[in-house]
Amino acid sequence: MGKLQSKFRRRSDLYKVKEGADTALVPQVVQYEPAHTDAINCVVSLTSDLCVSGGHDQAVVVYDWRAGKLCKSFQGHSREITKLCCLKGRSLIFSASRDKTVLMWDLGRDTEPVQEFCGHELVVNGVAVSPDGTKLCTGSRDNSMALWDIESGECLQRNTISRNLVTHVCWVPGSTSIVQTSEDKTIRVWDSRTWQVTNTFPAKQYIQTHCDISSNCYHLLSSSNGFGGQGCEATLWDLRQPGCKVAEYRGHLQTTACCVFVPPRPGCPALVASSSYDSSVKIWDQNTAACLYTLTLDGSGPLVSLAPCDSSSLLCASFNTGLHQLHLDQGAVPSLAEVARF
After folding, report:
1. Could you tell me whether strands 256-261 and 271-276 are parallel, antiparallel, or unpaired per DSSP bridges?
2. Where do the WD repeats lie (predicted)?
């Protein structure tokens, strides 16, 4: 059989702001130097002050979001950046691309890649680094998951599963387990020692677009594509009982592209954040699944990636309006406000 065809396509032209539309910023939103010249696909937190982003302009950009200053731009991919990962506090950055490769960059060196990981036959949509920083996991639409030695760039393991068109990859902190989502609507858990699937979660109704692991490694979040409010949910799973669904977060009207655990604050309820193609970011009570706040970023187009920086700061990547810095007030009634764009 041929490869499963993707059921969702990112058409940036569908979300362009129409000429003459009112694009004025809210007065209190600060506009910094733009990080990119085109749609952004992903953003991750590198340090308490720095984020890394990538998108259609093929650049990997390091930005000081607190100061509103571009620090470094890496160029080396021949097609758009799909995913990024790094180890917080370390200077190494890994970028996956539609050009079928993953490149490694060092913030402390020049702008040339320091390692290249080649071998996938189609776009690489998942990349995750091991907790000890020695191994790299990648997943692709070619149905394969691969394990690499970071220092040598050698492919150590490769496993192909029919219809496993990988959409995202997470390495469980402090463990040998890797979680991946797929266009076949399934979530799989891998053992990095044997490079075999150890658990497969019950298939959802829609494509699973993203996943995230809680800081205590007890829970997994996944998000679904969809349209017209059908699908479009985020799901909380118990990693201690693989396949055990704890809660669903429903309310987005289009594909939920990203879902993340919000860093906890003492005395406050556990929170989850999600972003969607419907141009909104929602804050949820992790335990009750109640939607506590919705922020709509008019004119932004799809909001495709979230990066929690601390318990009060979220970064959000958009197709039309760059990166958004959001302030989260975890008071008695949580609220979310945009404070800057870049």
Report:
1. antiparallel
2. 74-107, 117-158, 166-200, 249-294
